[in-house]
Amino acid sequence: MKVSLFATCLVDQFFPQVGVSVVRLLRRQGCEIDFPEQQTCCGQPAFNTGYVEEARKIARHTLKVFADAEYVVLPSGSCAGMIHHYYPELFAHEKSLLHQAERFIEKTYEFSQFMVNVLGVEDVGARFPHRVTYHPSCHGTRLLGVRQEPLTLLRHVRQLELVPLPHAEDCCGFGGTFSVKLGDVSAKMVEEKVENILRSGAEYVVGMDTACLMNIGGYMKRHEIGVQTLHLAELLDRGLNGQEAPE
Amino acid sequence: MSRTQATSNLKQRFGQALKDDFLRQAVKFTADSLRGKKETSTEAVENWEAWRDRGRQVREHTIAHLDFYLDQFTREAEAKGTRVHFAEDAGEAVRVFLEIVRDRNAKRVAKSKSMVSEEIRLNQHLEAAGVECVETDLGEWIIQLAGETPSHLIIPAIHKTRAQIQALFERRGRCSLTPDTAVLAGFARRTLREVFIHSDIGMTGCNFAIAESGAVVVFTNEGNGRMVATLPKTHVVMMGMERIIPTLADLEVMAHLLPRSATGQKITSYVQVLAGPRQSGEGDGPEEMHVIVLDNGRSRILGDPEFREVLHCIRCGACLNVCPVYRQVGGCAYDSVYSGPIGAVLTPLLQPETSYELSDASSLCGACAEACPVRIPLHDMIVRLRRRNTEAGRTPWSERLAFKLFASVFSCPAAYRLAGVLGRAAQRLTVGEAARRTWTDRFTGPMREWTRHRALPEPSREAFRDLWKQLAQESDRSPKSTDSDIGGNR
């Protein structure tokens, strides 16, 4: 099975280890991975701020880059959600591009969605002897409908204690440019998210989106809170590497 | 939180609200409690999702044929002796109301909850005309006595403390009370009874207007709606033109959806279906009944396919209770009778020139659409409103330039790569261990908004695309090897 990795701009620039983990995990399942180097971004930052022409320009480029891919996998529910939910609206008035977008959507998956629903993998064979809580990112769950898949993968990790996150489905406050336009409101939102993470008693907070994790992690770091943020793929990869010695 | 803040901008208003700890606690408490009750009551309905679908269908059909149903409603209502008035805007609605007041030489109006009347600021206009106007919904009355705007769509006074309410009541009654619930409620009951009995006109809102029978339906919990609609000689209903449903059978769908979504009740304490004034042979009811149907921008929304669905709203407030932004600031900060996600969409549509900023009040999490009993895609509409703001040139030039640049760089791989290299180099200089705080504290603008509360991500020397070359070799060596440490774990 040939999979093209759409790393997303955030992973490419700031969290490359997430991309490395995704590649390794998919290879273990026998996938042949390809990274089209012309890729950049899905266009979401512009689209969500109201700059639709600008978003379309980037989305058009993305369609071209992945035109020949068999499957496209993204380590982000938000970017996959952008493609699934908003690309049809973005190209509604350009027939040929709309057709291309529809084909792109059919073959595009968020990482955990691809693992569980396409590859049929629930247990990657990882071991992670820690207390972990899961933050379900809004776009992954509500735009894309990925709810159970990350939990399924986590539940099969040996020695991992999955603890519930109070008010789990509440937004972490990131929201793209929202976090800098109404920075103080956004900060109160992430403050509440972090309070709930602390209440859960977890050592790690895991998610399917680096953007949310960057927000939550950035807040915890600034406030010297010791809970670690980790992308789901990174956790599974670490759990396979034997980097997590039992305590 | 008074109306005087109308001139301030969104950021200032929200910033002000963030400082009000009591308000924020009260909003969170109320939102959580309503949210919990909604969950419990909807889980008990086996086919809740099917009811939502049906509700959406009813609303969609009605709005698509609104001209027909408004016409039918008018004919049926007038056949039962109700006078139906159409008002194109707030000014006309106020004029119609004042005419009714003058013709009857009315001195006092008793009101039950009506959001539309707040939309057109009826109370202020009545007072300016020398007519006493008393809100009789307990929460609305408290807000009126305090001279404030509602902090929640259906529970307007959540931000007032017991002591504040006591003080407001003591001033109103020129008496001394205790903060005891029974004492405060007793005072309200005694005072408001007098209002019901001695008012010339009773005014109610309208949850639904049934086209086939010309009847107006009002859902209430306090009983004040019944007093207002039956005791005064004249009953005036004020409704937005989209409140119509075709038949009594459709009311069953709405009665399933509205109370559960609003307060988690199976049904409200009172549901009135009011078809016309007192008929000959009937023992009670008003002598005359008027319905003022308000447009005030709704026709414009109806003709706008991107936003028409917002007219499906049944004003339950469920979107407020799940909104993470509303949760932090409460309703007053929206400076509109409609707050939360529905306010962030509806208010800019009704008043595009003054309220366009409200579409920024969202992290686009989509919780509102998920909670909406008639499935209005509020988060999609917020994005569309933002697009209209950029199209109308309402966004700052620096932002427009930034996104032009973003689009050019991110649609050109070579430029993107270069920007990445430069960006990460700058990041290493500014947010590396040594220099972090001293540098980031000097940031201004959007960057500062981030770094004031959050650290930036640790700089990464290499982009994923740089690591990819090594990763490709790893694959050649052994497809299952995962033990090498490319890029390193942070």
Topology:
The complex is a heterodimer of chains A (247) and B (490).
Chain A lengths: L1 E4 L3 H5 L2 H13 L3 E3 L9 H6 L2 H14 L5 E4 L2 H14 L4 H12 L1 E3 H8 L12 E4 L3 H6 L5 H7 L5 E2 L15 H4 L1 H18 L3 E4 L2 H13 L5 E4 H10 L6
Helix pairs in contact in A: 2-13, 5-6, 7-9, 11-12
Chain B lengths: L9 H9 L2 H23 L4 H17 L1 H14 L2 E6 L2 H14 L4 E4 L3 H5 L2 H7 L3 E4 L2 H9 L15 H12 L7 H18 L2 E4 L3 E3 L4 E6 L3 H7 L3 E7 L3 E2 L2 H16 L6 E5 L13 E7 L3 H5 L15 H5 L1 H6 L10 H11 L1 H4 L11 H5 L6 H14 L5 H14 L2 H19 L4 H5 L4 H7 L12 H14 L13
Parallel strand pairs in B: 1-10, 2-3, 2-4, 4-7, 5-8, 7-10
Antiparallel strand pairs in B: 5-6, 6-9
Helix pairs in contact in B: 2-12, 3-12, 9-10, 16-19
Provide a concise account of the structure shown.
The complex is a heterodimer of chains A (247) and B (490). Chain A is an alpha/beta fold.
Per DSSP E runs of 2 or more residues, the count of β-strands of chain A stands at 8
For the sheet with most strands of chain A, the description reads: 4 strands, parallel
CATH superfamily of the domain at 53-301 in chain B: NagB/RpiA/CoA transferase-like
- Radius of gyration of chain A, whole Å: 18 Å
- How far is the first residue's CA from the last residue's CA of chain A? 38 Å
Can you identify the CATH class of the domain at 53-301 in chain B?
Alpha Beta
Low-confidence stretches of chain B: 1-7, 478-483
Question: Helical content of chain A, roughly?
Answer: 40-55%
Topology of chain A as a string of helices (H) and strands (E) = EHHEHHEHHEHEHHEHHEHEH
- Percentage of residues in DSSP E strands of chain B: 5-15%
**CATH architecture type of the largest domain in chain A:** 3-Layer(aba) Sandwich
Quaternary organization = heterodimer
Residue share in helix of chain B: 40-55%
Number of DSSP-assigned strands of chain B = 10
- Global structural class of chain A: alpha/beta
What is the mean pLDDT of chain B?
92
Structural domains of chain A: how many: 2
Secondary-structure class of chain B? alpha/beta
